[in-house]
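FORM 12-B: Structure-to-Sequence Request
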């Protein structure tokens, strides 16, 4: 094999040649025949078109003699690979259809179709620059719906377990206390038990005027705590204003919803002219 023939073989191996591999396996082609047939596949764009070319040009391209090319074309015809016609020095070649199933080629065609569909979808999304709302829900519901259901189930199981633990700790004296509350208020015993079993209690509530940061009202479960309520109200207002100015985007209104520190949570809710901040702590 000379240098030019080696270059042809390298060129054949670098392109998709499932057809050539099929012919080599089916017809048990020799190395010289495989080189020439691979070149013909290249010229016909992998069997897609018929070609007319001179033996002189083929000999120059493949470095095979005209006589070798002539005999190999006849062999290919005898193998049922291609049809040919002679016109002086010119050769007209067209490949026969392949009746056998070639899994490698079928898979390539399927992948090509899938890639075209994906390219069309991506192109459509780029042109729209957004996803329609119902399409977005349809694409995300299967994933997000399962995640939300799982998290809600875990939260409910955790709450039930916690309540059962609290109920196990309730003494007979406390049950009589809940029954007395029911007789006095009309609220069922189960609701009193559930309220006392919740993992959080509201310790303090602050009502603050938004513009001036003045503390309008305050209530606490612990009357003896020494804490500057006005200072806390000003701190909450300053933090809210800082976050709004630092992270605001596209003139969208926003505010802090919650601040968490260890087991302490500060929940903030805003109104047009004031905001309310509540501090809650987990049961110990």
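FORM 12-B RESPONSE
SEQUENCE OUT:
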């Amino acid at each position: 094999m000379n240098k030019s023939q080696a270059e042809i073989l390298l060129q054949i191996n670098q392109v998709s040649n499932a057809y050539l591999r099929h012919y080599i396996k089916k017809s048990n082609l020799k190395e010289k025949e495989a080189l020439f047939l691979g070149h013909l596949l290249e010229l016909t764009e992998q069997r897609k078109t018929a070609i007319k070319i001179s033996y002189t040009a083929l000999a120059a391209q493949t470095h095979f003699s005209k006589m070798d090319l002539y005999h190999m074309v006849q062999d290919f015809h005898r193998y049922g690979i291609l049809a040919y016609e002679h016109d002086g020095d010119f050769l007209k070649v067209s490949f026969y259809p392949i009746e056998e199933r070639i899994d490698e080629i079928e898979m390539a065609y399927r992948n090509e179709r899938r890639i075209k569909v994906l390219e069309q979808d991506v192109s459509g999304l780029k042109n729209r620059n957004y996803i329609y709302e119902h399409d977005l829900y349809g694409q995300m519901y299967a994933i997000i719906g399962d995640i939300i259901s799982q998290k809600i189930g875990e939260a409910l199981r955790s709450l039930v377990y916690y309540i059962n633990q609290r109920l196990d700790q309730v003494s007979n004296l406390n049950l009589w206390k809940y029954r007395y509350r029911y007789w006095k208020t009309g609220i069922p015993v189960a609701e009193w038990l559930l309220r006392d079993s919740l993992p959080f209690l509201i310790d303090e509530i602050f009502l603050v005027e938004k513009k001036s940061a003045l503390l309008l009202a305050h209530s606490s479960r612990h009357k003896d705590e020494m804490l500057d309520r006005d200072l806390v109200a000003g701190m909450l207002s300053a933090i809210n204003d800082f976050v709004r100015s630092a992270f605001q985007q596209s003139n969208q209104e926003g505010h802090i919803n919650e601040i968490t520190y260890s087991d302490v949570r500060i929940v903030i809710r805003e109104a047009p002219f004031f905001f309310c901040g509540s501090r809650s702590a987990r049961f110990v």
